[in-house]
Amino acid sequence: MMAENKDTVHQTPWTDSDKIGREAKPGDKLEFQRPGGYKHVGIYDGEGGVYHMSGGPGVTSKSDSHYRRDEIIQVAGKSKVRVNNERDAAWQPLPETEILKRARESIGMFGGTYNAASNNCEHKANYMRYGKSESQQVIDITSGIQRFVDNVFRGSPTFDEYPSYCDE
Protein backbone atom coordinates (compact mmCIF):
# COMPACT_ATOMS: atom_id res chain seq x y z
CA MET A 1 0.00 0.00 0.00
CA MET A 2 1.26 3.43 -0.91
CA ALA A 3 1.87 6.02 1.79
CA GLU A 4 -0.68 8.80 1.50
CA ASN A 5 0.64 12.25 0.71
CA LYS A 6 -1.33 14.85 2.67
CA ASP A 7 -1.29 17.10 -0.41
CA THR A 8 -2.94 14.42 -2.56
CA VAL A 9 -6.66 14.88 -3.04
CA HIS A 10 -8.27 11.47 -3.39
CA GLN A 11 -11.84 12.67 -3.80
CA THR A 12 -13.36 16.13 -4.03
CA PRO A 13 -16.98 17.12 -3.39
CA TRP A 14 -19.36 17.16 -6.36
CA THR A 15 -19.24 20.53 -8.12
CA ASP A 16 -20.27 22.30 -11.31
CA SER A 17 -18.25 21.45 -14.40
CA ASP A 18 -16.96 25.01 -14.83
CA LYS A 19 -15.37 24.87 -11.35
CA ILE A 20 -13.63 21.46 -11.37
CA GLY A 21 -10.56 22.81 -13.18
CA ARG A 22 -9.59 24.68 -10.00
CA GLU A 23 -9.32 21.42 -8.07
CA ALA A 24 -8.28 18.88 -10.71
CA LYS A 25 -4.72 18.22 -11.83
CA PRO A 26 -3.66 16.71 -15.16
CA GLY A 27 -4.05 12.93 -15.00
CA ASP A 28 -6.74 13.00 -12.31
CA LYS A 29 -9.72 10.71 -12.72
CA LEU A 30 -12.97 12.68 -13.13
CA GLU A 31 -16.40 11.27 -12.35
CA PHE A 32 -19.60 12.66 -13.83
CA GLN A 33 -22.97 11.98 -12.18
CA ARG A 34 -25.47 10.26 -14.44
CA PRO A 35 -29.16 9.40 -14.03
CA GLY A 36 -29.77 6.12 -12.27
CA GLY A 37 -26.83 6.53 -9.92
CA TYR A 38 -24.00 5.44 -12.19
CA LYS A 39 -21.00 7.61 -12.99
CA HIS A 40 -19.18 8.32 -16.25
CA VAL A 41 -15.39 8.38 -15.78
CA GLY A 42 -12.50 9.93 -17.66
CA ILE A 43 -9.03 11.46 -17.28
CA TYR A 44 -8.52 15.23 -16.87
CA ASP A 45 -6.14 16.71 -19.44
CA GLY A 46 -5.23 19.83 -17.42
CA GLU A 47 -6.67 22.18 -20.03
CA GLY A 48 -10.42 21.93 -19.48
CA GLY A 49 -10.86 18.63 -21.28
CA VAL A 50 -11.40 15.01 -20.42
CA TYR A 51 -10.24 11.85 -22.18
CA HIS A 52 -12.95 9.23 -22.02
CA MET A 53 -14.59 6.25 -23.69
CA SER A 54 -17.81 7.29 -25.37
CA GLY A 55 -19.92 6.73 -28.42
CA GLY A 56 -20.10 10.45 -29.02
CA PRO A 57 -22.72 12.48 -30.86
CA GLY A 58 -24.91 10.52 -33.24
CA VAL A 59 -23.67 7.10 -32.13
CA THR A 60 -26.57 4.91 -31.12
CA SER A 61 -24.73 1.76 -30.06
CA LYS A 62 -22.30 1.49 -27.17
CA SER A 63 -20.53 -1.20 -29.16
CA ASP A 64 -19.26 1.68 -31.35
CA SER A 65 -17.58 3.44 -28.44
CA HIS A 66 -14.14 4.91 -28.87
CA TYR A 67 -11.69 7.09 -26.99
CA ARG A 68 -12.14 10.80 -27.40
CA ARG A 69 -11.30 14.12 -25.84
CA ASP A 70 -14.12 16.52 -25.07
CA GLU A 71 -14.47 19.64 -23.00
CA ILE A 72 -15.54 18.89 -19.44
CA ILE A 73 -18.62 21.07 -19.79
CA GLN A 74 -19.75 18.99 -22.81
CA VAL A 75 -19.30 15.70 -20.99
CA ALA A 76 -20.96 16.96 -17.82
CA GLY A 77 -23.98 18.59 -19.40
CA LYS A 78 -26.09 19.56 -16.41
CA SER A 79 -24.55 16.95 -14.12
CA LYS A 80 -22.02 17.49 -11.35
CA VAL A 81 -18.40 16.36 -11.55
CA ARG A 82 -15.65 15.53 -9.05
CA VAL A 83 -12.08 14.29 -8.86
CA ASN A 84 -12.04 10.69 -7.66
CA ASN A 85 -8.57 9.25 -7.17
CA GLU A 86 -9.61 7.00 -4.26
CA ARG A 87 -7.61 4.13 -5.70
CA ASP A 88 -4.41 6.13 -5.09
CA ALA A 89 -4.57 4.81 -1.52
CA ALA A 90 -4.17 1.23 -2.79
CA TRP A 91 -2.67 1.53 -6.27
CA GLN A 92 0.35 3.56 -7.30
CA PRO A 93 -0.73 5.97 -10.06
CA LEU A 94 1.49 6.12 -13.10
CA PRO A 95 3.45 9.34 -13.60
CA GLU A 96 1.31 12.20 -14.93
CA THR A 97 3.23 12.21 -18.22
CA GLU A 98 2.51 8.49 -18.75
CA ILE A 99 -1.19 8.87 -17.89
CA LEU A 100 -1.60 11.72 -20.37
CA LYS A 101 0.49 9.95 -23.01
CA ARG A 102 -1.74 6.85 -22.76
CA ALA A 103 -4.83 9.04 -22.95
CA ARG A 104 -3.62 11.09 -25.95
CA GLU A 105 -2.47 8.01 -27.85
CA SER A 106 -5.85 6.36 -27.36
CA ILE A 107 -7.86 9.14 -29.03
CA GLY A 108 -9.88 7.76 -31.92
CA MET A 109 -9.09 4.17 -31.03
CA PHE A 110 -11.94 1.72 -30.88
CA GLY A 111 -12.72 1.04 -27.23
CA GLY A 112 -13.73 -2.52 -27.87
CA THR A 113 -17.21 -3.85 -27.39
CA TYR A 114 -18.71 -1.96 -24.49
CA ASN A 115 -19.69 -4.18 -21.60
CA ALA A 116 -20.88 -2.60 -18.35
CA ALA A 117 -19.34 -5.41 -16.31
CA SER A 118 -15.97 -5.84 -18.01
CA ASN A 119 -15.23 -3.00 -20.48
CA ASN A 120 -16.70 0.33 -19.43
CA CYS A 121 -15.40 3.90 -19.15
CA GLU A 122 -14.17 3.34 -15.58
CA HIS A 123 -12.16 0.27 -16.59
CA LYS A 124 -10.44 2.40 -19.25
CA ALA A 125 -9.79 5.39 -16.98
CA ASN A 126 -8.27 3.12 -14.33
CA TYR A 127 -6.10 1.50 -16.96
CA MET A 128 -4.83 4.91 -18.06
CA ARG A 129 -4.14 6.12 -14.49
CA TYR A 130 -2.97 2.91 -12.82
CA GLY A 131 -2.34 0.31 -15.52
CA LYS A 132 -5.18 -1.80 -14.03
CA SER A 133 -8.54 -2.37 -15.67
CA GLU A 134 -11.13 -2.49 -12.89
CA SER A 135 -14.42 -0.77 -12.11
CA GLN A 136 -15.38 0.05 -8.52
CA GLN A 137 -18.97 0.56 -9.68
CA VAL A 138 -19.07 -3.06 -10.89
CA ILE A 139 -17.46 -4.29 -7.66
CA ASP A 140 -20.02 -2.34 -5.59
CA ILE A 141 -22.96 -3.70 -7.59
CA THR A 142 -21.81 -7.31 -7.46
CA SER A 143 -21.07 -7.01 -3.74
CA GLY A 144 -24.58 -5.62 -3.20
CA ILE A 145 -26.09 -8.51 -5.13
CA GLN A 146 -24.03 -10.99 -3.10
CA ARG A 147 -25.17 -9.39 0.19
CA PHE A 148 -28.79 -9.56 -1.01
CA VAL A 149 -28.48 -13.24 -1.93
CA ASP A 150 -26.73 -14.00 1.36
CA ASN A 151 -29.52 -12.26 3.30
CA VAL A 152 -32.27 -14.06 1.39
CA PHE A 153 -30.78 -17.47 2.05
CA ARG A 154 -29.29 -16.86 5.49
CA GLY A 155 -31.11 -19.00 7.99
CA SER A 156 -33.09 -20.86 5.34
CA PRO A 157 -33.48 -24.53 6.13
CA THR A 158 -31.33 -26.94 4.16
CA PHE A 159 -32.91 -29.56 1.94
CA ASP A 160 -32.22 -32.19 4.60
CA GLU A 161 -34.49 -30.34 7.04
CA TYR A 162 -37.53 -30.56 4.76
CA PRO A 163 -39.74 -33.64 5.22
CA SER A 164 -39.42 -36.05 2.35
CA TYR A 165 -42.79 -36.97 0.95
CA CYS A 166 -41.30 -38.92 -1.93
CA ASP A 167 -40.05 -41.70 0.32
CA GLU A 168 -43.49 -42.72 1.55
Defining traits:
endopeptidase fold (from Nostoc punctiforme); 5 strands; disordered C terminus; 26% helix; 4 helices; globular; alpha+beta; 168 residues; disordered N terminus; 15% strand; five-stranded antiparallel beta sheet
Topology readout:
Elements: E1 29-33, E2 39-44, E3 49-54, E4 66-71, H1 72-76, E5 81-83, H2 96-106, H3 121-130, H4 136-153
Short description:
This protein is α+β, with helices and mostly antiparallel strands. It has helices at 72-76, 96-106, 121-130, 136-153, and strands spanning 29-33, 39-44, 49-54, 66-71, 81-83. The protein contains four helices and five strands; from the N terminus they run E-E-E-E-H-E-H-H-H.
Description:
By secondary structure, this protein is an alpha+beta fold. It has one domain (20-153): endopeptidase domain like (from Nostoc punctiforme) (endopeptidase fold (from Nostoc punctiforme)). The protein is built from four helices and five strands. A hairpin with a 4-residue loop joins strand 2 (39-44) and strand 3. The longest helix is centred in the last third of the chain and has 18 residues, at 136-153. The protein is globular and about 50 Å long. The model is unreliable at 1-7 and 161-168 (pLDDT under 50).
Low-confidence stretches: 1-7, 161-168
User: What's the CATH architecture name?
Assistant: Alpha-Beta Complex
User: How are strands sequenced across the largest beta sheet?
Assistant: 4-3-2-1-5
CA-atom Rg in angstroms = 20 Å
Which structural class should the secondary elements be placed in?
Answer: alpha+beta
The shape, in one word, is globular
Total number of helical segments?
Answer: 4
The top level CATH class name? Alpha Beta
- The fraction of residues assigned to DSSP E strands is 15-25%
